[in-house]
User: Which sequence fits this backbone?
C-alpha cells in the first residue's frame, strides 16, 4: 500500500471514529480554548497537556468520546477538535490480526519508527500518526473465525494545522495513543494480562 493511500485511510478511519457512537458516545464543547481545558478529558483517560502542546490556539475545542463494550469493534476513542478543525485523535478497534500482519501492513511506510515494548505490545510512529498493537482476546471470542489472534489496534493522529512538528509532534501522538490504549484495554476485558509501561514510551531516546 502506498504511503498516500495509507495516510488517506488513516485519516478516514480516525475522522469516521469521531461520529461512531458505541455503547456510550458524547461530546463536550469548551469555549475558552485549549489552555483552559480540564486536566483530563475522555473519561479522564487523556491528559490534556498533550493537546495543549500540539493544537493551535483556538476559541473553541470540542471533545468527542465513544466507548464500546467487550465484543464491539470500536472499543474506545477520544478526539479533540478545534474550531478551525485541527484534530488530535486516537481510537482503539478490536481486530483479528497477527503481529506479523500488522508489521507487514505498515512496512512500506519508510518514515516509521518502530517502538518495541514488553508483553507483546508494539508501536510504530510516523510524522503525523502512530499505530499500536496490543494482544487482546475478548472475554467471549467469536467461534469458528479462523486461527488469527485478536488484538486491539490503536490508530492515533494529528490532522490539519498543529503548533508542534518533528519529534515533539510524534511524541504527542504516541502519548494520546497509549492513553487511549490503556482505557480500551480495560473496556475490552482482555484475557491476556498485559503490563503497560508506566508512561508512554519515548519516540526518541533521551540524549
Assistant:
Amino acid at each position: 500500500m502506498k504511503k498516500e493511500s495509507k495516510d488517506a485511510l488513516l485519516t478516514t478511519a480516525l475522522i469516521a471514529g469521531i461520529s461512531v457512537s458505541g455503547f456510550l458516545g458524547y461530546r463536550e464543547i469548551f469555549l475558552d480554548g485549549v489552555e483552559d481545558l480540564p486536566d483530563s478529558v475522555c473519561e479522564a483517560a487523556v491528559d490534556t497537556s498533550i493537546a495543549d502542546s500540539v493544537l493551535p490556539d483556538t476559541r473553541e475545542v470540542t471533545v468527542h468520546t465513544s466507548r464500546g463494550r467487550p465484543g464491539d469493534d470500536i472499543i474506545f476513542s477520544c478526539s479533540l477538535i478545534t474550531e478551525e478543525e485541527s484534530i488530535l485523535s486516537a481510537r482503539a478497534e478490536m481486530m483479528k490480526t497477527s503481529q506479523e500482519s500488522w508489521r507487514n501492513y505498515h512496512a512500506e511506510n519508510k518514515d516509521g519508527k518502530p517502538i518495541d515494548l514488553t508483553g507483546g505490545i508494539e508501536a510504530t510512529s510516523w510524522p503525523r500518526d502512530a499505530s499500536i498493537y496490543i494482544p487482546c482476546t475478548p472475554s467471549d471470542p467469536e467461534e469458528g473465525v479462523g486461527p488469527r489472534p485478536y488484538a486491539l489496534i490503536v490508530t492515533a493522529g494529528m490532522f490539519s494545522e498543529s503548533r508542534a512538528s518533528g519529534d515533539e509532534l510524534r511524541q504527542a501522538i504516541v502519548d494520546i495513543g497509549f492513553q487511549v490504549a490503556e482505557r480500551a484495554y480495560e473496556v475490552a476485558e482482555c484475557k491476556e494480562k498485559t503490563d503497560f509501561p508506566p508512561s508512554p514510551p519515548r519516540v526518541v531516546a533521551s540524549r
About this structure: The helical segments are 3-19, 48-54, 99-106, 166-188. Confidence is low (pLDDT under 50) at residues 1-13, 15-22.
